[in-house]
Amino acid sequence: MSVKAFKLVSAVEREMLMGDKNYINIECIECCGKNLYIGTNDCFIYHFLLDEKVSTAGKISFAATKQLHKYLGLKKPVSELKAASALTRLLVLCDNTITLVNMINLEPVPTGARIKGAVTFTLNENPVSGDPFCVEVCIISVKRRTIQMFMVFEDRVQIVKEVFTPEQPCAVAVDGYYLCLALTTQYIILNYNTGVSQDLFPYCSDEKRPIVKRIGRQEFLLAGPGGLGMFATVDGISQRAPVHWSENVIGAALCFPYVVALDEEFITVHSMLDQQQKQTLPFKEGHILQDFEGKVIVATNKGVYILVPLPLEKQIQDLLAGHRVEEALVLAKGARRNIPKEKFQVMYKRILQQAGFIQFAQLQFLEAKELFR
């Protein structure tokens, strides 16, 4: 049954990005605070400032102001962007090379520091170095069956480790020393410090796009066989039941307590608390879905949209109004980690009371008695 958990709000209209140039397509996005960066197929980076506006009726909208755009000088698409805000650097992957550019003026660093031979890359959000003025970057190398770890500073890069994999890797996520890898036929966890690896489950990358996403400390979300969204820890076990996606999921994101997935026609929202599908939003031609510091962004080739979560209290009240007591209580308990303790206790008592009256009205006296207690 459905819950209104998110609203889809336009952030960057196609005219702002491409005017009447129909050949321009969005290849990748990055969002850091109010800064939104877009990489295109004609080798440009666009920088927008996003302002969130709330109307008196509580309706949220976004105003994007274009700051500048920069041509990287190649006839290749910009395939990935990642911000390292502590260094005021943007890491840009284009033509198998990661270039460091200034986040404000998009100029390359004067030293010309770069990482060559990268197919794709990701940042380690649980770094092991302890140096605040450095980011740890993991790349899938153009060398066959090779992963490389780098330390990236403001104006230089340094290789730390090169690791060989049993099959060709096609997607990677990092947590501390642990790499979660999609290989040609399976997912594995690999500790790049010790070299110890652990098989997770089989997967055919020729048939479907693999998804490997770090969702928290030592935990990953993966696109498994049979259209399942599977959770795995670095120990190779799953502490949560899987969610049922469609067979052709393109991207996934986490906005607690929800897992959001994108396929060719829809955005689907599943609860991590009871694994049920809660919302379906029609969305055609989407090809990017990512979460940035809790902000979930989706994009087509021509436009960028933000999935705005409705307040959890509003969602709980909607469930109670529909007499869906169990779901409301599960969501209320799950909301504990998002709400300050005192506020949560007041809210939870009120929800238990409301739920008790609903059960009472349905003549479920034992259940009502427990809730009133």
UniProtKB/TrEMBL annotation:
Boundaries of every CNH domain copy: 23-296
Protein location: Cytoplasm
PROSITE patterns for the chain: CNH
Amino-acid biosynthesis among keywords: no
Domain of life per record: Eukaryota
Main location: cytoplasm
Keyword annotations of the record: Cytoplasm, Protein transport, Transport
InterPro entries xrefs: CNH_dom, Vam6/VPS39/TRAP1
Biological process, per Gene Ontology: autophagy; endosomal vesicle fusion; protein transport
Cellular component aspect of the GO annotation: cytoplasm; membrane
Alphabetized PANTHER family for the sequence: CNH DOMAIN CONTAINING, TRANSFORMING GROWTH FACTOR-BETA RECEPTOR-ASSOCIATED PROTEIN 1
Protein name per its UniProtKB record: TGFA1 protein
